[in-house]
UniProtKB/TrEMBL annotation:
NCBIfam families in alphabetical order: PRK00431.1-6
SMART domains with a match to the protein in the record: A1pp
Name used for this protein in its record: O-acetyl-ADP-ribose deacetylase
Domain Macro: 1-169
Species this chain originates from: Chryseobacterium indicum
InterPro entries noted in UniProt: Macro_dom, Macro_dom-like
Length: 169
């Protein structure tokens, strides 16, 4: 899989799938979640409500999919990242699951290109450098015959700098 780094707004990315850093309610929120629901329109929320009604709240690390609504992306994969509470071992495993489960779901949808935001590094306060290492490791360790490209979309300068440095290594 090719890895690409982009600085910007994930709602503008033309990938088969973009990943949303959602919360367990699946009903939207702030940060990238708010941006995706605003840009994608009501269809995404309606589908999230349907999923909620069918299976209840979404657990940390669990991935569910909706269409992209008005977004250029075909699918939105909603994942719930861990809230940082200082437990590095547990938090790291949960965050790794987020990337792994998103990639597995993407593969089952025959997605060729997928874009990730920096899950958990905003409102959920996960340390950015540790989160980036986990994200890059999970993607590099995932072998796929289907997914061709993974795009890390960094919104803030700090994350972009961290990813640029780690991806150079
Ligand atoms: N495009 C790409 N990345 C973005 C965008 C955007 N438009 N907007 C923000 N980011 P956060 P979390 C970056 O807080 O930490 C929500 O309320 C941001 O700079 O969106 O997983 C949910 O509903 C940061 O690096 O998600 C949950 O309640 C990254 O996205 C909670 O926040 C993640 O920040 C989830 O918190």
């Amino acid at each position: 899989m090719n890895i690409e780094l982009i600085k910007g707004d994930i709602t503008k990315i033309e990938a088969d799938a973009i990943v949303n850093a959602a919360n367990s309610s699946l009903l939207g929120g702030g940060g990238v979640d708010g941006a995706i629901h605003r840009a994608g329109g009501k269809q995404i929320l309606d589908e999230c409500i349907e999923i909620r009604n069918r299976q209840g709240k979404c657990k940390t690390g669990e991935a569910v999919v909706t269409t992209g609504g008005n977004l250029p992306a075909k699918y939105v994969i909603h994942i719930v990242g861990p809230v940082w509470n200082g437990d590095e071992e547990k938090g790291s495993k949960l965050l790794a699951n987020c990337y792994h489960n998103s990639l597995k779901l993407a593969e089952s949808l025959k997605v060729k290109t997928i874009a990730f935001p920096n899950i958990s590094t905003g409102i959920y306060r996960f340390p950015k450098e540790l989160a980036a290492k986990i994200a890059i490791d999970e993607v590099k360790n995932f072998t796929s015959e289907i997914i061709e490209k993974v795009i890390f979309v960094c919104f803030d300068d700090e994350n972009e700098e961290i990813y640029r440095t780690l991806l150079k290594e």
